[in-house]
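Researcher: Here's a chain I'd like modeled. Treat it as a single chain, no partners, no ligands.
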Amino acid sequence: MIMNKNEYKRYEDIGNWDFSMIKYHITQENSWDFYEQIKKYSTPTSLILDLGTGGGEKALKYLPDVGMIIGTDFSKSMINTANKNKEKYPDKRIKFVCMDNLNLNFPDNLFDIICARHTIIDAKQIYDKLSKDGVLIIEGVDKYDAWELKELFKRGQAYKDEISISQIDYENIKKAGFKEVEIEEIIQYEYYETENDLLALLLKTPILDDFSELSNNNVHNKEIEKDLFKKYVKSHTTEKGIELKRILYGIVAKK
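Model: Modeled as a single isolated chain. Structure tokens:
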């Protein structure tokens, strides 16, 4: 998977990956947790590479205190945001670097843990950059994520893919040479407090791909099929909020 110019521009213009203003809560069918997996395999001296760190919000808040964390993102705007966010965590041993996930400019056999959440990866490069007995930990968004929404709009992330994203990642990781690879499906239900909260999520993520457009002043316009959006909201409003079923996957692979 390669990011096109329009997608790159979109993330540059967004400039952060902070969802704290969106009001929602989550229930999950199993106990697999991305950050708990990282804690499980880390030590106080671990060197961790966080791929696709975005504005660094989650890396700063949830990654464990270790020897050093390096967070990378292809977007200079995101890295600028991450460095600003870092000011709130003066004691966190973390550095943010602008770098493409598919062109990792680090020495081989360097990192104890490489983690990637909701981003593209190159399994062979990751294998090479991991130290002996190093661990890769992934949380990804699968083909059938938010499927009822995608079916209604007839588009979306991986909507037309014949093979699921999880299967592609799993096979590529095995081919890269990892000796132990475990994969788990993660089913979550997100409940959004209002229509605007759900809309804010969809405008900021690629769930529906071209759900939003950028105007000349880089402001996200709500140029969407409002009738379809209203139809989804009406049919998925519950006592808990507007329901969105998420299908994710977790992978832990040992070198």
